[in-house]
Amino acid sequence: MHDEGEDPTAAIVPNNAHPDIDDTPSAIPPPAPSQPAPVLSVAEAAELAHLARKIRKHHFENTGGSLPVLLPCASYLKSPDLVPVKRQHALLRRLRMWWFDCRRANAMAQHLGWSKESLVPVRAEEWPLPHGIGEMTEAEQAGVPILTEFKPESSISRWSLAPGSWLAMAWREAGRPQVTMEQWVAALRSTSHIELVDESIAASAITI
Fold first, then answer.
1. Is the peptide bond before 121 cis (omega within 30 degrees of 0)?
2. Which residues have C-beta within 8 Å of that of residue 55, sequence separation ≥ 6?
3. Where in the sequence does UniProt note compositional bias of the Pro residues kind (predicted)?
4. Fewer CB near the last or first residue (10 Å), C or N of the chain?
């Protein structure tokens, strides 16, 4: 029965009715404002300049993978202010990885007996050519996984084909020797002392 005066046709609202969505305060906090990247330390800035000069001395430039690195290097050497701070950090990561892989390639060639004074160029960081993927693939098919080890990988800031290309050239000049998995693993282990950040570069760069 309905109370006198109550409209029997009125909608029944349950006691636990949810409020309209528009009336509900948002439970998701607004995103925090992004923090600006910290400026490079004196050592990092000197290291970046040192590596930028080193890579621009030999590395090929006019390829899709190289231009995004080599052009900012030129700008940074002209004036660091021309390169945004956030990009300076990314550039330093990429240059460190290139230099790390060059040193690894040099050490592996030495360990495997492929390193000799007749190589042109004699060291991986001096490799000037925009090709080498063919020889890396050829080595891979012969059981020497240079391409697998040195292929570009954005997640670790590896972008340059040069270190692997140079190592494949050294393999070719050595007569395309067969390499067992044990020999390859030993060559990789011979690079275990090499650190991503070359402290000697950073230290010497500050004194320049």
1. yes
2. 69, 70, 73, 95, 98, 99, 125
3. 27-36
4. N
**pTM higher than 0.85 for the full model?**
no
Give mean pLDDT in consecutive 10-residue pieces for the chain, a chain of 208 residues.
52 50 57 78 95 96 91 97 97 98 98 94 94 91 95 95 96 96 97 93 63
- Contact (CB, 8 A) for 65 and 151: no
Which sequence spans correspond to the domains of the chain?
Answer: 42-207
- Count of C-beta atoms within a 10 Å radius of residue 60: 18
Q: Residue holding tokens 């495997």?
A: 112
**Count of CB atoms within 10 A of residue 94's CB?**
22
Cβ contacts of 4-13, under 8 Å, gap ≥ 24: none
Q: Which residues pair with 158 in a beta bridge?
A: 153
Pair 54, 47: CB distance under 8 Å: no
Give residue 83's Cα distance to chain centre.
18
Q: Which residues contact 165 (CB under 8 A, 6 or more apart)?
A: 127, 129, 131, 132, 133, 135, 136
Give the span between the Cα atoms of 130 and 200, in whole angstroms. Answer: 28
